[in-house]
Specification:
It is a single chain. By secondary structure, this protein is of the alpha/beta class. The chain folds into 2 domains: 2-31 and 161-254, Rossmann fold (3-Layer(aba) Sandwich); 35-158, Rossmann fold (3-Layer(aba) Sandwich), CATH 3.40.50.10090. It contains 11 helices and 11 strands. The longest helix is centred in the last third of the chain and has 21 residues, at 234-254. The mean pLDDT is 91.
């Protein structure tokens, strides 16, 4: 099993090292580079003592880490008076490192976050979504329909990374499994593959994704062998790979 890890910098290399430590052959191929945004200064208002925000939602660990850098630079703190919601376990674990205990939905996507807010966070009137340049419009629209005022903080910028034709051909000859953590990554992958043979290879790999929404998007792009993992943490991918390997061994034993 040769695994292509496409998650963004700087977490890509850590994921590769973790997979290798568990005995998997993993190759680093980040599709996106993450850079902190200049709009982080908006956090000053949200984290102020007189803030009127009730709920802070982080859509990724990249949002948390970008914000944390600003929080430390400005010598601020995450107020204990606010409620915090993370899209998944990896994001919540990232926040926990900085003293923030965030709720995590059972279904780790926008639909899951909305359901959790409905069930556990009644009384929220103002929410702020920490995100990249765009995203989570569906969640914002649903919250606004419930009378909740929603604002965004653009925490980071995503810059697509290009790869040579030679590199793509090398992947085609070696890679049979891909880890992808966002629709943007999947879209970029399909854009990079320009030849019929490359496209056939890409659609034929085993694709590991962290959410139901991303699984559905992958299907719309033509992917066939898709595995839904329990979140976007490195261990979620390792557990999925272990299940794939176990299923393959069982099939071989039955022959």
């Amino acid at each position: 099993m040769q695994v292509l890890v496409t998650r963004p910098k700087p977490h890509n290399q850590q994921c590769v090292k973790t997979l290798q430590a568990f005995g998997y052959s993993a190759v680093a191929a980040p599709m996106v580079d993450i850079k902190a945004s200049q709009q982080l200064a908006q956090l000053n208002t949200i984290l102020a003592a007189d803030s009127t925000v009730d709920l802070v939602i982080a859509v990724s660990q990249y949002a948390v880490e970008s914000c944390q850098q600003f929080v430390q630079q400005q010598r601020l703190n995450w107020p204990s008076s606010l409620q915090y919601l993370a899209v998944g376990k990896a994001t919540a674990e990232c926040w926990q490192q900085y003293g923030v205990k965030a709720l995590v939905p059972a279904r780790q996507d926008s639909e899951g976050m909305l359901q959790l807010i409905d069930q556990q966070l009644q009384g929220v009137t103002r929410a702020t979504i920490l995100r990249g340049q765009q995203g989570r419009e569906w969640l914002a629209q649903k919250l606004q329909a419930k009378g909740i005022e929603v604002s965004y903080v653009t925490c980071y910028q995503r810059n697509l990374i290009s790869y040579s034709e030679q590199q793509l051909e090398h992947w085609r000859s070696q890679i049979n499994t891909i880890i992808a953590t966002s629709g943007e990554i999947l879209k970029h992958l399909t854009t990079l593959t320009s030849t019929p043979m490359q496209r056939a290879w890409l659609k034929g790999v085993t694709l590991l994704v962290p959410s139901q929404r991303l699984l559905e998007y992958a299907k719309s792009l033509g992917f066939v062998h898709i595995v839904l993992c329990e979140g976007a943490s490195d261990m979620a991918f390792i557990n999925a790979l272990a299940q794939i390997s176990s299923s393959a061994r069982n099939k071989n034993d039955q022959r």
